C-alpha cells in the first residue's frame, strides 16, 4: 500500500473532536475507520476536491488500520475498481483521503451522531 502517513485537514480534525465528545470514543483511528466505511458504502464516488493536510493530526497507515489494515486496503482497491479507477499508488492515496474526509463530514453532520448508539445504528 502506498499510504504511509495520514494527515487530516483542520476541518476534519475539528469534526473528529466533536465526534469524540459525542461518542466517547477516544481513539482517532477508530473514528476514522468508521468514517471510511461510511463513505465507501455510498453509491457515488467522492467529489474530487483538494483536501489540505493542514492539521497536526497525523497517524500511520498501520495505526489507522490496525490488525485489519490489509482488509481496508482490499476494500479501498475494490471500490476503486468499481468506480473505474486504476490501482496506482497515487490513485489509492487520493481516493483514501477523499473517502476518509467525506466520511468524517457525514458523521459530523449536526444531529446525525449524538451518541455511540447512533454510530452503531449506522450498521443496522
Key descriptive features of the protein:
globular; Arc Repressor Mutant; two-stranded antiparallel sheet; mainly alpha; 124 residues
Report on the structure:
With 124 residues, the protein is mainly alpha-helical. It has a single domain (5-121), classed as Arc Repressor Mutant, CATH 1.10.1220. Helices cover 57% and strands 5% of the residues. It has helices at 10-23, 28-40, 61-65, 69-82, 89-107, 116-121, and strands at residues 5-7, 58-60. α1 (10-23) packs across α5 (89-107) and α2 (28-40) packs across α5.
Strand elements, count:
2
Q: Please state the average pLDDT score.
A: 93
Distance between the termini: 31 Å
Q: How many helices? A: 6
Low-confidence stretches: none
What's the CATH topology name? Arc Repressor Mutant
C-alpha Rg (nearest Å): 14 Å
Order of helices and strands: EHHEHHHH
Fraction of helical residues: 55-70%
Question: Which CATH-level-2 architecture?
Answer: Orthogonal Bundle
The H-level CATH homologous superfamily, spelled out, is: DNA sulphur modification protein DndE
Going by helix content, strand content and strand pairing, the class is mainly alpha
Q: Please identify the top-level CATH class.
A: Mainly Alpha
Question: What's the short story on this structure?
Answer:
This protein is mainly alpha-helical and 124 residues long.
Question: Helices and strands in order, then pairings?
Answer:
Layout: E1 5-7, H1 10-23, H2 28-40, E2 58-60, H3 61-65, H4 69-82, H5 89-107, H6 116-121
Antiparallel strand pairs: 1-2
Helix pairs in contact: 1-5, 2-5
Amino acid at each position: 500500500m502506498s499510504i504511509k502517513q495520514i494527515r487530516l485537514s483542520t476541518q476534519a480534525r475539528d469534526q473528529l473532536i466533536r465526534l469524540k465528545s459525542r461518542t466517547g470514543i477516544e481513539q482517532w483511528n477508530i473514528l476514522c475507520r468508521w468514517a471510511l466505511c461510511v463513505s465507501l458504502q455510498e453509491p457515488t464516488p467522492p467529489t474530487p476536491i483538494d483536501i489540505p493536510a493542514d492539521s497536526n493530526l497525523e497517524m500511520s497507515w498501520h495505526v489507522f488500520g490496525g490488525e485489519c489494515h490489509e482488509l481496508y486496503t482490499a476494500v479501498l482497491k475494490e471500490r476503486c475498481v468499481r468506480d473505474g479507477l486504476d490501482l496506482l499508488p497515487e490513485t489509492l492515496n487520493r481516493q483514501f483521503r477523499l473517502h476518509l474526509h467525506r466520511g468524517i463530514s457525514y458523521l459530523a453532520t449536526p444531529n446525525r451522531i449524538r451518541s455511540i448508539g447512533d454510530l452503531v445504528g449506522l450498521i443496522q
